[in-house]
User: Which sequence fits this backbone?
């Protein structure tokens, strides 16, 4: 018993030494259970977010205003399905199957980014999602390219490249609308009003209320706190909005030279954390619809997946018989 | 190009572009709702190719007809009777098996069509375009044929669903190969290939896939037609209200 404990103790020391030296942890390396669990939860949620995120944007493919925009949007949602696939693979290297993760998503047990529980009533919402939601996602994800878990870090490098392209595309949609007719400009402003606060909330609770931050920072899964990332996001977006003549819906927004350790940054108004928790707990505008759509797709696809399994078995049996 | 020739080329480009646009539109409706994540990736990818083909063809078409300012005017601002796609592509998706069977029918037809254009077409720009299009279309045909085999051969239920899909789509298949003044003239002028030859190749390939899939090839006769003349089915109006919504609601805007 003592030797087992000693062995585990030295493995943990080895693991921590690797983390300290910025070496990557690989699937076959020893890792503490809590590290594994944190990563499975985080990568799984990230994968689910990509998959559920296809719904609000997919909502506008058939109605996109031009062929060029339609093609870009199709390419974007296709990228998202691809991101979902990489991320499920990365999570599978930690010992959890994609089927289990999918079941947890469909049963409502696993979470995905709450942002996708907001609706996309107009074309401008597609621009706002690209600009703000993908913008916030990049802030979160760029540090993850240096995350201590190798497969996740590598998946994030590719994902970040595509996300930054999506963000530019989203901003360009907003720019075009903002330069357009009064109706277009109004559509863009209304979308910004809808998406601003939910995007600011995407970084999660304030550091004081965040339960997962401390371990994740120590393990170099997370390199910045929620509030640090939120500040970076606000500082990046405010001048972009100004440049295209749109107004951030926050009267308390102002330059504060004390922010960012005295280099200056934008102070922003009070975040409605009640709304944040309400949406997380399932009471957002589209929680039921998003989950129902995924459940319906899964259930209606059962016969297809069954047939694929059966066909593969028959093919395998035929091959064996031929040998 | 003489006016009569220009009209013929314009009509041909529209037929091809509309088929691709409308099937791309239907295929894109699957986004986020497919049976597996792999299919959620593949179907938007195919829709992207189809709509990309339509875009390229509309660009060629509006160069020939000053009535249309750009490709979007052709894609979004015509009236229902001005769309020249076959009825097959505008039908609702139905279940996944119905969707892949239609894609198999259409992309196999188009694969042979592009191949023929690649060999011979008096309109050089289309001939050139077909070199790229045939590659993508062959992939669509291969992807969908794999699913037809998988689902036909899979379970009793999936075989039954595929047999239903065959019956469901059968009335619309003949129009792909139906002749009219345009097809006869365009063949004479070396613009479009002869549909009879394409039909033979198509039948042979579909038969070979159906054999592997334990499915029966129905006798293809001409039952429902009209799309090529702009006479569409009831479902088409709903499709157009989605497709044209933004351009109709916000006219003369840049996007």
Assistant:
């Amino acid at each position: 018993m003592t030797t087992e404990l000693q062995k585990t103790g030295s493995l943990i020391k080895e693991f921590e030494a690797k983390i300290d030296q910025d070496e990557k942890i690989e699937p076959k390396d020893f890792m503490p259970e809590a590290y594994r669990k944190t990563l499975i939860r985080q990568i799984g949620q990230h994968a689910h977010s990509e998959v559920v995120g296809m719904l609000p944007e997919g909502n506008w493919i058939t109605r996109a205003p031009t062929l060029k925009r339609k093609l870009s949007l199709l390419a974007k949602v296709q990228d998202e399905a691809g991101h979902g696939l990489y991320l499920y693979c990365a999570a599978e290297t930690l010992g959890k199957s994609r089927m289990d993760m999918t079941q947890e998503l469909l049963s409502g047990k696993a979470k995905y980014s709450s942002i996708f529980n907001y609706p996309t009533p107009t074309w401008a919402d597609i621009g706002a999602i690209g600009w703000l939601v993908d913008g916030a996602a990049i802030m979160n994800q760029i540090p993850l390219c240096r995350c201590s878990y190798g497969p996740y870090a590598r998946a994030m490098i590719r994902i970040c490249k595509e996300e930054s392209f999506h963000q530019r595309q989203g901003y360009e949609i907003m720019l075009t609308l903002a330069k357009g007719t009064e109706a277009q400009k109004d559509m863009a402003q209304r979308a910004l009003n809808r998406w601003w606060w939910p995007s600011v909330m995407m970084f999660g609770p304030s550091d004081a209320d965040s339960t997962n931050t401390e371990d994740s920072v120590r393990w170099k899964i997370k390199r910045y706190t929620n509030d640090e990332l939120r500040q970076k996001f606000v500082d990046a977006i405010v001048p972009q909005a100004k440049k295209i003549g749109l107004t951030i819906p926050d009267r308390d927004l102002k330059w504060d030279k004390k922010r960012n350790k005295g280099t200056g940054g934008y102070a922003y108004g009070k975040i409605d954390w009640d709304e944040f928790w309400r949406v997380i707990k399932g009471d957002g505008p589209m929680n039921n619809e998003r989950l129902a759509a995924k459940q319906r797709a899964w259930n209606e696809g059962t016969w297809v997946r069954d047939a694929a399994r059966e066909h593969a078995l028959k093919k395998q049996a035929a091959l064996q018989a031929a040998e | 190009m003489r006016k009569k020739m220009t009209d013929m080329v314009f009509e041909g480009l529209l037929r091809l572009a509309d088929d691709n646009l409308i099937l791309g539109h239907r295929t894109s409706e699957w986004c986020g709702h497919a049976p597996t994540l792999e299919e959620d990736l593949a179907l938007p990818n195919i829709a992207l190719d189809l709509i990309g083909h339509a875009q390229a063809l509309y660009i060629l078409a509006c160069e020939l007809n000053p009535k249309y300012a750009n490709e979007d005017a052709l894609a979004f601002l015509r009236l229902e009777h001005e769309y020249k796609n076959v009825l097959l592509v505008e039908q609702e998706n139905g279940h996944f098996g119905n969707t892949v069977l239609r894609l198999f029918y259409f992309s196999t037809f188009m694969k042979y069509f592009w191949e023929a254009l690649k060999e011979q077409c008096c309109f050089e720009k289309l001939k050139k375009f077909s070199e790229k299009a045939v590659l993508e279309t062959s992939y669509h045909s291969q992807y969908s044929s794999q699913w037809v085999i998988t689902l036909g051969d899979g379970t009793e239920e999936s075989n039954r669903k595929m047999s239903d899909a065959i019956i469901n789509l059968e009335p619309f298949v003949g129009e792909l190969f139906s002749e009219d003044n345009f097809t006869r003239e365009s063949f004479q002028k070396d613009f479009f290939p002869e549909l009879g030859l394409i039909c033979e190749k198509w039948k042979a390939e579909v038969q070979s896939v159906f054999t592997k899939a334990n499915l029966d090839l129905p006798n293809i006769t001409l039952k429902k037609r009209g799309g090529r003349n702009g006479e569409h089915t009831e479902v088409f109006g709903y499709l157009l209200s989605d497709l044209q919504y933004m351009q109709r609601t916000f006219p003369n805007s840049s996007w």
Observations:
- The radius of gyration of chain B is 18 Å.
- Chain B has ten helices and no strands.
